[in-house]
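Protocol step 4 of 5: obtain the predicted structure for the target chain.
Materials: sequence only (see below). No template structures provided, no constraints applied. The aim of this step is simply to have a reference model before the mutagenesis design in step 5. Sequence pasted as it appears in the construct record:
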Amino acid sequence: MSHVVISSFENVETGDLQSQGESISVFESEALARAHFARRSSALAALARDARAREPEATFITWLLILRMPLDVGGVDEALEDLELVLEETEAIDDPFGEFVIAYEGFRHGTDGTAEHAQTEALRELEVWLT
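Step 4 output (structure tokens):
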């Protein structure tokens, strides 16, 4: 079964700050996906800390999740196509990815400190990105 790790690092005012290829990765096993999730989590925390130091008035959002894919996928393009299909075929309009989420972590880094960023909001952002 394939697993996909998707991450987001954005400046609320200016948008996505990730380099191409950083936002989505496909893995053959949950163990490999979890290892990448842990590495990416540390990287996002460091990126957010550095960004806040450079732009103390800006607000940054970071989130990442692991999705268990309904079918095995051979790469990023195929994973994106399958996720779009999930959106089209799901009956759970409010939470189309809910049953596929294995792990989630999200934070809002702003002038008032760091707070959790809701999974539902991240999934909505993912849905918008895919459509």
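Step 4 remarks: The longest strand covers residues 101-110. The chain has three helices and six strands.
Proceed to step 5.
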